[in-house]
Design goal:
The chain has about 70 residues and is mainly β. About 0% of the residues lie in helices and about 30% in strands. The chain is built from no helices and three strands. A three-stranded antiparallel β-sheet has the order 1-2-3, with no helix packed on it.
């Protein structure tokens, strides 16, 4: 798995249709904006999770669109 370092305002592109931008970083937390086609599910998953489960063992929830850009 590649590790990519970005700063606030910088982004990475995944394929032709997905862009992940760092919009804020403060107090050990990072806020990301994900721009992807509506048919691609975007889920928040903890790094140490197994089988896609979150740290509390529950399956990850689908992130609700924030009304931001769509690809």
């Amino acid at each position: 798995m590649p590790i990519i370092e970005r700063r606030v305002g910088q982004a990475i592109r995944i394929g032709d249709e997905i862009v992940v931008e760092v919009v804020a970083a403060r107090d050990g937390q990072v806020r990301l904006e994900v721009v992807a086609p509506r048919d691609i599910a975007v889920e928040a998953v903890d790094a140490g999770a197994q089988n896609g489960a979150t740290a509390d063992g529950k399956p990850p929830g689908l992130l609700a669109p924030s009304g931001s850009r769509q690809a």
